[in-house]
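Reviewer 2 asked us to include a model.

Predict the structure of this chain.
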Amino acid sequence: MTAPVYVPAGTPAEQQVSGDGDVVRVLASTRQRVAARAVDFLAAFLVVMGAVSPIYGFVLLSEGSSSASAVPWVTVAALLFGVAGPVLLRVGTIARWRCTAGQRVAGIRVVREEDGIRPPGWRRSFRRYTVPQSTSSFALITDPSEHRKDERLGQCQHDRRARTVVVQAQAPAAAETGGLAVLGSSGSASSAHVRRWEARERRRRIVLGSVLGVLGAAVLVAPTTLALLAAEPSSAGEPAFEVNTFYDDDVHFENAFGGRSEIYERTAAKVLDGEAGCLAGATTEVARSALHQAGCEGRIEIAFKTADGVLVSSHVLEFPDAVSAKNAERHVRAGDLRFVPGGPIDPPGGARVGDDGSQDRYLVVTTAVSPAQPDAAARAKNAFRFIHVPTLNVILWL
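Predicted model (structure tokens):
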């Protein structure tokens, strides 16, 4: 096969025809190569994010030991795919279609230097990728400079080692396999074929670029969107829980221990920062004085209701140190705090149980009140235990 004729980007159409019938290829411009590299970075980013996403799914959504044991395997597989995915994406697309996603959007192709038509194939594509793409780590900056210095073929170091040339996309021959349509041909049939091919190729470039752009924007915007949605109050009237209360995040959940369990409905939750929040929950002057002297720094207030109608309220008070928390524990009783956020301290009921306890910098105060019913005291105690004990025995991260 006769060696092709390579002409610089921007060569007029009438000069893109060889009088000897040789294949004429127009070299890719610097702008096209930079744009292609930028789009390829975006495509690689999407591949990596797609590979890493299962890690978050398993870690954050897994329940039970069987799911948790699969997390390391999922992590290893995802990381391997995240590393190998962009490599295979770049090498495979060039070997098969002569272009990456970014090069397709930019309208350029990678071809063999000796014929200017055939794709490089797997061996040259791997060689082109594995060879250092420039003498610097900043290929996106140094490659354009290296490309412009080669006035004959516009090759970078990886092109020269792999014997490939980056050229502008050109319509294939209409009547034969292989070869290219002559862009400067005056024949009406050939011109119509070239116009149809260019229109089809332009549509495909626009679609591919739009898809990558939308996906990239969605990935970048998703964390902010999720954070905003999570911060909005629930439209269904359910409480918006803005703290870790150490129970299931659902409004309805079940706590179990020692062969017994209780089902709860979370009815309210509130975060009250600072001393003012602590004092707002105190219903007696004695409690206000004790909290003020101990230096209370904030309060989490949560209210629950069981299937038996038992009302449970838990307060997690934050202090500067464990000594202050212990001091407050000696003076503040369960009845000294509001039963529910802004509600009464003494709702009517058949039985009442409450307790408090301190740990580290925190004082946990919990009260349960049962309506008049059989075994009211036992029901109130059961509902109290499954809220108070877990809260008191965990490390509180506030």
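The longest helix spans residues 188-231. Confidence is low (pLDDT under 50) at residues 63-67, 232-243. We have added this to the supplementary material.
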